[in-house]
Amino acid sequence: MSTPNVWNFGPGPAKIPTSVLKRAQDELLNYNNTGMSVMELSHRSKEYESLNNKAQRDLRTLLNIPNNYKILFMQGGGHTQFSAIVYNLLSAKRHQLGEDLKEEFNPPLDYLITGSWSSKAAEEAKKLYNNVNIVFDVKKLKGSYGSIPPKEEWKLSGSKAAYVYYCDNETVNGVEFNHIPEIDPSVPLVCDMSSNILSRRFDVSKFGIIYAGAQKNIGAAGLTVVIVREDLLIRSNNKNSDIPAIPSMLDYKIMADHNSLYNTPPMFSIYISSLVFEWLLELGGIEAIEKTNSTKAERLYEVINNSKIYKSPVEKSVRSRMNVPFRIEQEGLESEFLKGSIELGMLQLKGHRSVGGIRASIYNAMTLEGVDFLIEYMKAFERKHCQ
Ligand code: PMP
User: Fold this and answer.
1) Which of 174, 265, 320, 380 has the most crowded Cβ, counting Cβ within 10 A?
2) What is the full DSSP assignment across 6-44?
3) Its annotated pathway (predicted)?
């Protein structure tokens, strides 16, 4: 059966490079001459161990991850990290303040809210802990997401905080930071990079923890990559227990001590990720893909900027290069646009159900050709409706 020709603009699970899928297909029944599929191997086997190590090495090379950071392959998606962070970093802060601490232990957790994912992360933290400090919430300030307030307006807690949390790219709202926030250097910076990791170069050493679900720029759902600075793996051995005990599956130290083999890992997803890492290295690494990503986003935003019908809900300086939401104000035209796009094989362009509109997700695996195809359609649609 031949594959229908489609352009997948889905926000995640998202397009995986065709060459990666073909290779997985070729190797599906016989991984590395084992006579078995990678899904059937023991996770304690030599073959899997070397796959696990190679995937980590390649990711380290791609992102230039310093040696004092561990790479963890975890499960449960971004949602699970929303709570893993709270447990792990409260414990690290408890240790940092000293085991003989006399005063009450209640450090603030600072959250920057720029869209629905950081908002959800803060809500999850509130379920576990009573001192969550909202540094700012753009929706509360402006009525909707689409901007980031200037630093002077941020209400950070300074060195008292156990961490500062933000989401580098808000997948639903199309808001992306154009810089790494500057915070008190003694406080770990925690970042959700689920939808823009591997899309551009950045300095890992500025972060305490970076995490990303795999299903956008890394590979297949099921794997969550966590990059954690080693000093944060310190655990408080406080017996009075003024911090919650960490469930083993959320414990970064346990995962690190077992090289992500504490329990059965999502091996197939890690395998696909390792093929994506190889694909990126062959392309010329992050620098190369970053150039293509910038060109794709520039071309798409240019059409929106010069259009009489398409409107971006996001301020120019913080527009995402990965998720490009736009609206057509005229009644009924958005559904006509989406219907027409599907007929031409452009799939999953519908905006998130919470915000509506249209959203083109143009992750690493979306080609320039795919973006140009969309652009031609957008221009033709505008000509038809705007004489
Ligand atoms: N953070 C971001 C930025 C996301 O885009 C998503 C999912 N789209 C999540 C967190 C939640 O991830 P998961 O569905 O893997 O739990």
Assistant:
1) 174
2) -EE--SSS----HHHHHHHHHHSSSGGGSSS-GGGS-TT
3) Amino-acid biosynthesis; L-serine biosynthesis; L-serine from 3-phospho-D-glycerate: step 2/3
Pocket of ligand 1 (CB under 6 A): 12, 77-79, 117, 167, 171, 192, 194-195, 213
Catalytic residues: 117, 192, 216
- Cα 238 to ligand 1 centre (Å): 33
* pLDDT tens-digit profile, the chain (387 residues): 566 689 999 999 999 999 999 999 999 999 999 999 999 999 999 999 999 999 999 999 999 999 999 999 999 999 999 999 999 999 999 989 987 888 899 999 999 999 999 999 999 999 999 999 999 999 999 999 999 999 999 999 999 999 999 999 999 999 999 999 999 999 999 999 999 999 999 999 999 999 999 999 999 999 999 999 999 998 766 666 678 889 999 999 999 999 999 999 999 999 999 999 999 999 999 999 999 999 999 999 999 999 999 999 999 999 999 999 999 988 899 999 999 999 999 999 999 999 999 999 999 999 999 999 999 999 999 999 986
Which pairing describes strands 189-192 and 163-167: parallel, antiparallel, or unpaired? Answer: parallel
| pTM (2 d.p.) | 0.97
